[in-house]
Amino acid sequence: MTRTRREFESNNPSEHHVAARYWHALPDGRAQCDVCPRFCRMRDGQRGMCFVRACDDGKVVSTTYGRSSGFYIDPIEKKPLNHFLPGTPVLSFGTAGCNLACKFCQNWDLSKSRHMDTLGEKASPENIANAAREHGCESVAFTYNDPIVFLEYAIDTAAACHEHGIKTVAVTNGEVCAKPREEFFAHIDAANVDLKAFTDRFYRILCGGRLGPVLDTLVYLRHHTDVWFELTTLVIPGENDSDEELNAMTGWVVNELGPDVPMHFTAFHPDWKLLDRPPTSAATLERARQIAIDNGVRYAYTGNIHHEEGDSTLCHACGGKLIGRDRYVLKKWNLTVDGCCNSCGARCAGVFAPQPGDWESRRMPVQIH
Description:
- The chain is α/β, with parallel strands linked by helices.
- The chain has two domains: 5-62, no CATH class; 68-366, TIM Barrel, CATH 3.20.20.
- The protein has ten helices and 20 strands.
- The protein has helices at 5-11, 108-111, 125-134, 151-163, 178-185, 200-207, 211-224, 243-257, 282-294, 308-311; strands at 18-19, 23-25, 31-33, 41-42, 53-56, 59-62, 67-68, 71-75, 89-93, 121-122, 139-142, 167-172, 190-194, 228-235, 263-267, 300-303, 313-314, 321-326, 329-333, 364-366.
- The strands form five sheets. It has a nine-stranded mixed sheet. A three-stranded antiparallel sheet has the order 1-6-5, with no helix packed on it.
- Helix 3 (125-134) crosses helix 4 (151-163).
- The protein is globular.
């Protein structure tokens, strides 16, 4: 997707342009973005597929630095992260654009936005960190759209947060190249990665991407970082919900990432360009969860439905309920101060404080100045 320089300048005031990381000039005068595997090649005034990384005066720039669609305090479980500081508030924000083109995107108004007027909030990294501290947030999340496309803003914000002892969370599709992946995740404490399906066909036809780079990111996170991460799969009837695919996916997770990586199976509802599929039934999600458990996944969850068992964290050793949840509200806490089962002493994988937070299901908008 491209636009003329005149359109580019009128929609993106130059004060929001910052020099982009990870690009190089091509012999034909174009500039190639090297952040994600799309490797968009742009002439002056053109934008990449994400629509927010652009070529300006022969150089790649990020056009949304310091601009957001809004800031909200959410429960950390909404990311979803069930094993990272449960019950605590997280300051969440995103910008615009995405490097995939998922036909079922449920945040399409942001991820596929072509209008910069959706970015009505302005905030520096330092102001975001200060706001998180003032509101008692344990972490800041880069979410709503993929943070890979606002890499520079996310990295600077993460550095500012860490100076105040605030942790950082990335909600991402995992489609990122090796070098930017290394720098980005060096600044991240926890992540939820969308494992959208387990076939390249699904990624190619429904997302405009590839499965391979996502699997590479997951292996990198597991074996080369200390980032706590969990996986989410939006289960779409007739597309990625077969027993065969769910068995292959969950078996790969256990074999390559280990049994302690939590998996969230969430309900699809018709949206954006995929309107000819029915919503996912509770029975389908429960079947996906059971397949994961049968294949050795210790922590499997259901999402976007009301299913208390599928919301709760169970001990992998004795089966007891460690964290009882009703949607985002914690109903039971049966962990020791060091994150072990109070009943049998088995360690629960994750990052836990001695006591759970009490933010529950509130969502609060925040003005940052």
